[in-house]
Amino acid sequence: KRKILSEEEQQEARLYLSAPNLMERTRQDIGRAGVIGEENNRLLMYLIFTSRKRENPLHVISLGSSGIGKTHLQEKVSALIPDEDKMESTSLTAAAIYYFGRYDLRHKLVLIEDLDGAEQALFPIRELQSKRRIIRTVPFKNTKGETKSIQLIVEGPVTIAGCTTKESIYEDNANRSFLIYTDESKEQDEKIMNYQRKVSAGKIDIAAQQKIIKQFQDMQRILQPIQIRNPYAEFLKIPDEVFKPRRTNAHYLAFVEMITFYHQYQREKQYDNETGEEYMETTLEDIAEANKLMKEI
Questions:
Q1: Average pLDDT in the 136-147 region?
Q2: Cβ atoms of residues 150 and 137 within 8 Å
Q3: Hey, CA dihedral for 224, 248, 79, 1, is it positive or negative?
């Protein structure tokens, strides 16, 4: 069930989202919520997870060696998303995905722990990403024993997130997603082990972590759908050597819009003179933030 926020909870969430330096505060507080290191990746992943609220959501695949912390990163960042807005699965079959209720996945974050265990479902997942709906026609027998056909329809849009060690196998899925490479450096190893020691020694304030997690979930609940317009879009160009430039360009523009969307409590809303539609405009600061976060990926 969707949680109804009290006036005090709404006020705290609005205060956080309207205060200056939102991106840097978010990056730091994700760390305070228990995500160790991965400063760039954790903010990217959080914003991608937030994009589920939009009509053109983003997707992410975490890549890295076995046991390096891909699933841990996804699990920790997804904890910041309200339970009612996500669906988690260790494995997923092609048949199962068609048997969700028509609107069960709409604007949800679908978390797949291991893409290797969801190979059968990769085709409907791709269709759900691209077309924002999947349809399957199946036979059934009615009460008279007559065989009829019915359509199973599952509506999107959804945000898909998954982890794998096998990048090349999932090329068709990968070019629909942001690819995040898990930090395998010795420095990251030391950060994680040092955190593990502190947990064992009882020096991590778990209650404080849970408070931050709850605050993030409440912030997610008050973010509202709104149209975004980027007046600088025609001047933005990605490098020529980028893999799959058409899709990457669309991802880039959508990510810029996502940063604008996240700042909705700091921007003045505008109205189209002809249609009366409410919208917000992207700023140069939004583009700078997107460029900084997306440079490596």
A1: 84
A2: yes
A3: positive
